[in-house]
From TrEMBL:
One record GO biological process: thiamine diphosphate biosynthetic process
GO cellular component: cytosol
Listed name of the protein: Bifunctional hydroxymethylpyrimidine kinase/phosphomethylpyrimidine kinase
Catalytic activity, reaction form: 4-amino-5-hydroxymethyl-2-methylpyrimidine + ATP = 4-amino-2-methyl-5-(phosphooxymethyl)pyrimidine + ADP + H(+); 4-amino-2-methyl-5-(phosphooxymethyl)pyrimidine + ATP = 4-amino-2-methyl-5-(diphosphooxymethyl)pyrimidine + ADP
Claim: Transmembrane is one of the keywords in the record: no
Organism, scientific name: Streptomyces vinaceus
Record EC number: 2.7.1.49, 2.7.4.7
Length: 267
């Protein structure tokens, strides 16, 4: 009988176009050798052009999914994504508090196309309830500005942003700097716990098909933690995986296509 692989749970919204959300998370987890499980927090009508609709699930449904998975199957790492509302943020924070596995919190605020995926009224709950439960918080630059007010225009600003995020209580902050224009052909992310400072750099790719990048990085990081890696190792391997997926991103529909989660198999 084959031993079960490491277990990783995504708590996030569904992307009907398959590029981001739980779909991206599960593809990433499969590609990286862990068993992916899911708690759906919201359903979106979404494609390459944007988000046409969002339907939030009741907090009781989210809690029931989580308990069904964790109490029976178990979990080695949890990744959170789109949580949509104060009620869901508070519910998931409470669930994480009772779970011993490491947690990657991706504080999803807007989609790739600029569509709001988190109510403004929920930001305070993210700061006070969710971020303190995170092993690693992984905001992008827009989410940093939403949460902390720090506007990042340089790598020095990324250091200030990381400090501001850490002040809310996560053990580590991974500031995703892919939208930063600095260093032209280099995409830089910053990982820090306040003492260790690790820059994760990879070549920029001209490929415009980048939908799901943030979800993919966070779930790749969670997959590494599920396999027992420490945070720096998991982050470095996640960056390498995402860089390959970005380079292989492909056209889908009339807008922004997804990264290629199966790039390692398709090359």
């Amino acid at each position: 009988m084959t031993d079960a692989p490491p277990l990783c749970l995504t708590v996030a919204g569904s992307d009907s176009g398959g590029g981001a959300g739980i779909q991206a998370d599960l593809k990433t987890m499969l590609a990286l050798g862990v068993h992916g499980m899911s708690v759906v927090t919201a359903v979106t009508a979404q494609n390459s052009l944007g988000v046409q609709g969002v339907w939030e699930l009741p907090a009781e449904a989210v809690k029931a999914q989580y308990r069904a998975v964790v109490d029976d199957i178990g979990v080695h790492a949890v990744k959170t994504g789109m949580l949509a509302s104060t009620a869901l943020v508070e519910t998931v924070a409470e669930l994480l508090a009772a779970t011993s596995a490491p947690a990657v919190v991706d504080p999803v605020g807007v989609s790739k196309h600029g569509d709001a995926l988190l109510a403004a009224s929920a930001l305070d709950a993210v700061r006070k309830e969710l971020l303190p439960r995170a092993t690693v918080a992984t905001p992008n630059l827009d989410e940093v500005a939403q949460l902390t007010g720090v506007v990042v225009e340089s790598e020095d600003d990324m250091r200030r942003a990381a400090d501001a995020v850490l002040a809310y209580g996560p053990q580590w902050a991974l500031i995703k700097g892919g939208h930063l224009a600095a260093h032209g052909n280099q995409a830089a992310d910053l990982l820090t716990d306040g003492d260790t400072l690790l820059w994760l750099r990879a070549p920029r790719h001209g490929n415009r098909h980048t939908h799901g990048t943030g979800c993919t990085l966070a779930s790749a990081l969670a997959a590494g933690l599920a396999k027992g890696q420490d945070v720096p190792q998991a982050a470095m391997e996640a960056k390498e995986y995402v860089s390959g997926a970005l380079a292989a991103g492909f056209a889908l529909g009339a807008g922004i296509g997804p990264v290629d989660h199966a790039w390692q198999w398709n090359r």
